[in-house]
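<context>
A single protein, sequence plus fold
<sample>
Here is the protein in question:
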Amino acid sequence: MKTYHCHKIAEGKGEGEVLFSEDPVNFYLVDPKTGVFIEPHHSLSGQCITGKILVLPYGKASSVVQADGMFQLKMTGNGPKALILQAPDTTLVASAIILEYPVVDKVDPAFFSEVKNGDRLCVDADAQTVTKLD
């Protein structure tokens, strides 16, 4: 196990496999019935985000679209367990807080070179830690 310091944006705790996105995310372009990313040409196209710790640069889309996409995923149980943001944006952060998704940013730089897709993580926003469990 290795623990990385981070900054809490939205409270909570989530555990799951990590999934890195190279591109900004619009949660409205994730199928709420399957959790599969349906945006063509996106780095996560065809991949499932259900139960994942999603690491992304930032969100994209209007507040209504982003909030609705996150809401649909939350209601079907197909959303991520937590979000790690590289550059928080107001729209995504507000939606995550309202829908009670744990969100952190400012993770120790070593995290990005030491953690890979599929590693198991525990994001504890309240303790301001991200722990690699593998």
